[in-house]
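User: Last request for today: this protein with adenosine-2'-5'-diphosphate, please.
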Amino acid sequence: MKTMKSRVILNNGVEMPILGLGVFESGENTAPAVRYALENGYRLIDTAAFYGNEKEVGRAVKDSGVPREEIFVTTKIWNDMQREGRQRESFEKSLKALDLDYVDLYLVHWPIPGKIGETWKVLEQLYEEKLVRAIGVSNFLEHHLEELSIKGNIAPAVNQFECHPHLIRKELREYCKSCGIVPEAWSPLGRGEALAEPLLQELGRKYDKTPAQIILRYHVQNGVAPIPKSVHPERIIQNKEVFDFALTPEEMADIEKLDCGSMHGDPDHVDW
Ligand code: A2P
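Assistant: Here's the final one, the structure of the complex with adenosine-2'-5'-diphosphate:
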């Protein structure tokens, strides 16, 4: 993983940038943040129907002037639309809001008990119709992935889950990799909470990097694709400058010791 242009190859051959911009709670700053990121080398933008900003993302994609085929847009189906059996309609709404012809990666946002097979069939259909270049899941634990492997025909390309130094998810990461599923990290900075860790500050001094850059380097070196959210231009730039240094295996192991199980959303209790 040498540069911002580095790509991971998904299980269907599609290339995905190793680092992108998240836009959860970016609010009115979504369009300027996305546009600024695209103008400065980002090529992966991660949104979701639930974030309520697909329209702004789509507008920024167009305004950036970057050719559409160079940009990797991810969005996700929300829980209520799964519960109500309106998966197809949900996708069509997202595509319309984004004002795009296709989505690069479409994810099941959370595993909804009793709906895993049904929702996945709709995603498989969208994939076959070439409306999405790849399909995947988010917040799936090992047992959800096992259920999907029984009920589905196409393996998910990506599993996006909460992953940061306070929740390292080592077993889930390894399980995904053993199934050919690329792990992607939401809240890769732990919503900013992990940044104050003395170890990360110390490593930052050693490499002349910020704690955020140390964390993002840790993810990339682990083969996990992080999607840090920021609406600040200087941080958007800072977060992509993680390809000019490498952490030692001992430092990687030390970062994993910061795990304290701090979780913002439990996939086994989705009541939202
Ligand atoms: P902001 O958008 O104001 O820059 P995560 O992606 O882990 O959820 O973290 C997002 C949080 O971390 C947001 O509050 C974001 O704030 C903040 N953040 C993003 N990048 C940096 C950075 N390089 N340094 C400090 N805080 C950051």
